[in-house]
């Protein structure tokens, strides 16, 4: 039967050679496992006489405690040594941190707002869930107009819908009765469109409105010309094409000369020299009367432009869906 001191010395010598967790566990099994050296000594107690057994049992318990304490002590030492090791190889080249940026649509919208603010326009907002009255009736949109059809508009019920444009905001502002008004209303709008390269069921618009005494179509042209020259460059020209909008009369589509080719014709402008930007016109007197504004005293103009449309032109993007797919390879370019 091995001497207790010999087993302790053997354990201490082997413990000094342990340098990792696996070796430490192997040592534990060697001494305290089912077939371990200490365990085997405990199994020999039954062969001793009743007089010898208590003394030997006490010796083995002390031996077991010494082994357990040694293993615990070495485990802590290994853990501390691991923590003190550097977790970063300082010889490696540095990594540039990823810096977040605004979404390209947000960048365009902020630029539009900044330009109009500098021209004296306030920025107004309104609800995205609108009533039929504010979205259509108050804007002089007749019941037969195709925009009111379920195929074009998302309805909740007979009275509520997702707004199809930001024009309802001008009605909310005019109802306050504080004139004159010079405002823009940027925001998200919804149309029941099937997604394709130029259409998406959700997009962003900026509605503009100016109501004051003596406002004319010339003021509208001057405002839009100043805006597009600030946005695309000082050489930009605009033109108006007759159109129909329920809430403006007369109405016109606005084209801007291509900023890329200067009007000579390129891929961006489809070789026409002009880029279609949005709609505009003088506020229809019926719209003013509907909110209690006397059209004999007050006149105004309204205009609208699409953020996605403007972004596609400015960045040379040919598919509106790219702005909504959250592909970082695309978004990191802006």
UniProtKB/TrEMBL annotation:
Gene Ontology MF, one: tRNA binding
Keyword Transcription regulation appears in the UniProt entry: no
One Pfam family from the record: Phe_tRNA-synt_N
A single GO cellular-component term on record: cytoplasm
Family annotation (SUPFAM superfamilies): Class II aaRS and biotin synthetases, tRNA-binding arm
Binding site for Mg(2+): 249
GO biological process, one term: phenylalanyl-tRNA aminoacylation
Catalytic reaction annotation: tRNA(Phe) + L-phenylalanine + ATP = L-phenylalanyl-tRNA(Phe) + AMP + diphosphate + H(+)
EC number: 6.1.1.20
Entry note: cofactor: Binds 2 magnesium ions per tetramer.
InterPro entries: aa-tRNA-synth_II, aa-tRNA-synth_II/BPL/LPL, Phe-tRNA-synth_IIc_asu, Phe-tRNA_ligase_II_N, Phe_tRNA_ligase_alpha1_bac, Phenylalanyl-tRNA_Synthase, tRNA-bd_arm
Main location: cytoplasm
Ranges for domain Aminoacyl-transfer RNA synthetases class-II family profile: 108-333
Cofactor(s) essential for the protein: Mg(2+)
Protein keywords: Aminoacyl-tRNA synthetase, ATP-binding, Cytoplasm, Ligase, Magnesium, Metal-binding, Nucleotide-binding, Protein biosynthesis
Family label: Belongs to the class-II aminoacyl-tRNA synthetase family. Phe-tRNA synthetase alpha subunit type 1 subfamily.
Quaternary assembly: Tetramer of two alpha and two beta subunits.
NCBIfam families linked: pheS
Record PANTHER family: PHENYLALANINE--TRNA LIGASE, MITOCHONDRIAL (PTHR11538:SF41), PHENYLALANYL-TRNA SYNTHETASE (PTHR11538)
Protein name: Phenylalanine--tRNA ligase alpha subunit
Gene behind this protein: pheS
């Amino acid at each position: 039967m091995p001497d207790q001191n010999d087993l302790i010395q053997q354990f201490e010598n082997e413990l000094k050679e342990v340098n990792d967790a696996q070796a430490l566990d192997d040592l534990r099994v060697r001494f305290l496992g089912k077939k371990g050296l200490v365990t085997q000594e405990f199994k020999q107690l039954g062969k001793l006489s009743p007089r010898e057994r208590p003394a030997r049992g006490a010796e083995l318990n002390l031996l077991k405690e010494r082994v357990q304490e040694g293993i615990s002590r070495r485990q802590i030492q290994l853990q501390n040594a691991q923590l003190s090791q550097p977790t970063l190889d300082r010889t490696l080249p540095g990594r540039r941190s990823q810096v977040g940026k605004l979404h390209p649509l947000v960048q365009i919208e902020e630029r539009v707002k900044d330009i109009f603010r500098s021209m004296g326009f306030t920025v107004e907002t309104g609800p995205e869930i609108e009533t039929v009255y504010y979205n259509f009736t108050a804007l002089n949109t007749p019941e037969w107009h195709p925009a009111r059809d379920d195929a074009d508009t998302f309805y909740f019920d007979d009275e509520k819908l997702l707004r199809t444009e930001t024009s309802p905001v001008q009605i909310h502002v005019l109802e306050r009765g504080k004139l004159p008004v010079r405002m823009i209303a940027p925001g998200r709008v919804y149309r029941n469109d099937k997604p394709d390269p130029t259409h998406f069921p959700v997009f962003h618009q900026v509605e503009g409105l100016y109501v004051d005494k003596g406002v004319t179509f010339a003021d509208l042209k001057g405002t839009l010309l100043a805006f597009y020259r600030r946005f695309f460059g000082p050489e930009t020209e605009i033109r108006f094409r007759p159109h129909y909008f329920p809430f403006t009369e007369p109405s016109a589509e606005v084209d801007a000369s291509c900023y890329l080719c200067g009007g000579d014709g390129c891929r961006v402008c489809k070789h026409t020299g002009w880029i279609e930007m949005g709609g505009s016109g003088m506020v229809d007197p019926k719209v003013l009367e509907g909110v209690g504004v006397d059209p004999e005293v007050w006149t105004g103009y309204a205009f609208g432009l699409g953020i996605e449309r403007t972004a596609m032109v400015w960045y040379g993007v040919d598919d509106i869906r790219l702005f909504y797919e959250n592909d970082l390879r695309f978004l990191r370019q802006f």
